[in-house]
Structure formats: structure tokens, C-alpha cells
Design a protein that fits this description.
alpha/beta, Rossmann fold, 2 domains, 9 helices, about 40% helix, globular, binds 6-O-phosphono-alpha-D-glucopyranose, binds magnesium ion
């Protein structure tokens, strides 16, 4: 029996990967590095500083900047990203997510958000669903990023259940690995790439019934 749900944000609730991409692409261009959408796939679920690191390695410039300079670059990217987020509205919720969330809330299933994004609370407010969640893990308090299960363990704790009692929803392979590593049931939200190890795979969350998931 499952008792609660833990959602990733980008790619599960809304698709902000394209906004991250615009902001990273512009920053990379400033550094004479060209990134494309295929490379962007590697940044999904990866924290801000680690994403910058991957871009610098990709451009062969990982040794060119001090930590302080990298922090400034990451801040610049974030400033641009937050500007792009201003236009977000409930229309930007991924198809099927709200129907599923409403059904979970009606059945009083506790719901948490486990996202590496420090902008998650702001994004959830723009999408007008912030109040629907019982907990949002603060990624600044974590020691390890996905695929480490830490964020999922913390999300389950925050809604007072064990990881084994939770269903986790993810669109990134690293996320599915984190979910499985702590014994949660994993729902993979697939777009283009197949997700390995997921217990269930869907294109959109309204393909799922809350009751049947709770019985897993
Ligand atoms: C999510 C996204 C990543 C992003 C990370 C940090 O995991 O999938 O692309 O880099 O959050 O986001 P932030 O908003 O804190 O820069
Ligand atoms: Mg994601």
C-alpha cells in the first residue's frame, strides 16, 4: 500500500527545460561555447553549478574560471532564467498533471516536490499550485544531487511516510535511479528517451488512476 506522492518538477509538472536551455545557451555563447538541444538533455535534473560545470567541460573551458567566477556565471544564468519564468501561467502545466493532482488531493494523498531547482517555490506559485503541496524539499539543504536518493528520502520524511510507502514521478533517468535506490515505486514520465528501471511508464499523468497507484 502506498500513502503519498513525490513529484519532480521540470518535465513532470511543467516543462521549464526549454527556458533553462535558452538561459544556458546565451551564457555559453558569451563564453564561446555552443550548446544544442541534444546536449541540453544531459542537464535535466542536474543542479545549477553542476550544469555550468558540464557546459564548461563540453566547451573545453573547465580550467579557465575560478570558483568565484563560476558562481558569478551561474548567478547570471539564473537572473536570465528568472526573467523568462515571469511569463509562466497555469497554462504551462503539463497536460494531465492537474487532473491527476486534483484527484490525489480529493483522496487526501499527501504530495511533495523533489526538485533540484531552487526556483521551485516561485515556479509553483506562478503555476498557481503552490498551496496544493504538503512539502517542497529545499535543494540548498542537500549534500548530494540525483541520482543520489537523498532528495527523495527527504521528501518522504517531509510528508511523514517511508520511501517504501511513496510513489515517485520523474522524467529523468538520474531521478528514476534515485527513486529506485530508496525503495520507492517509480513512475517514469517519458518524452523522447526511454526510462530504464521505471516500474511504470506514461506519457502523461492522467493515464494513471490514483487508487490503483495507492494499491501498488
Ligand atoms: C532542475 C532542472 C535542471 C536545473 C536544476 C536547478 O533539476 O531539471 O535543469 O539545472 O533544476 O535549477 P535552478 O532553478 O536551481 O537553477
Ligand atoms: Mg525533471
Amino acid at each position: 500500500m502506498k500513502k503519498g506522492f513525490v513529484f519532480d518538477l521540470d518535465g513532470v509538472i511543467t516543462d521549464t527545460a526549454k527556458l533553462h536551455f535558452i538561459a544556458w545557451k546565451d551564457l555559453a555563447a558569451m563564453l564561446d561555447i555552443e550548446i544544442d538541444l541534444t546536449f541540453n538533455e544531459q542537464l535535466k535534473g542536474v543542479g545549477r553549478m553542476d550544469s555550468l560545470e558540464r557546459i564548461l567541460v563540453y566547451g573545453g573551458k573547465e580550467k579557465d574560471f575560478s570558483l568565484a567566477q563560476k558562481e558569478t556565471l551561474a548567478e547570471e544564468k539564473n537572473k536570465h532564467y528568472v526573467e523568462l519564468l515571469q511569463d509562466l501561467t497555469p497554462q504551462d502545466l503539463l497536460p494531465g498533471f492537474k487532473t491527476f493532482l486534483d484527484s490525489a488531493k480529493k483522496k487526501q494523498v499527501p504530495c511533495a516536490v523533489a526538485s533540484a531547482s531552487k526556483n521551485a517555490p516561485f515556479i509553483l506559485k506562478k503555476l498557481e499550485i503552490f498551496d496544493e503541496f504538503d512539502a517542497i524539499v529545499d535543494p540548498a539543504t542537500l549534500t548530494k544531487g540525483k541520482p543520489d536518493p537523498e532528495i527523495f528520502i527527504r521528501a518522504a520524511q517531509a510528508i511523514h511516510i517511508t520511501p517504501e510507502e511513496a510513489v515517485g514521478f520523474e522524467d529523468a533517468q538520474a531521478g528514476i535511479e534515485g527513486i529506485k535506490a530508496c525503495g520507492m515505486f517509480a513512475v517514469g514520465v517519458e518524452t523522447t528517451e526511454p526510462l530504464y528501471q521505471a516500474d511504470l511508464r506514461v506519457k502523461r499523468l492522467d493515464e494513471l488512476s490514483v487508487d490503483s497507484l495507492l494499491q501498488k
